[in-house]
Amino acid sequence: MDKPQNHEAAYRALRGLEALRWIPLGGYPGADNPWLLKCQLCDWTGPRYWSHLRGRKGAPPTPYRHPGCTGRKAV
Ligand SMILES: [Zn+2]
Question: How far is the CA of 22 from the centre of ligand 1 (A)?
Answer without folding.
Answer: 9
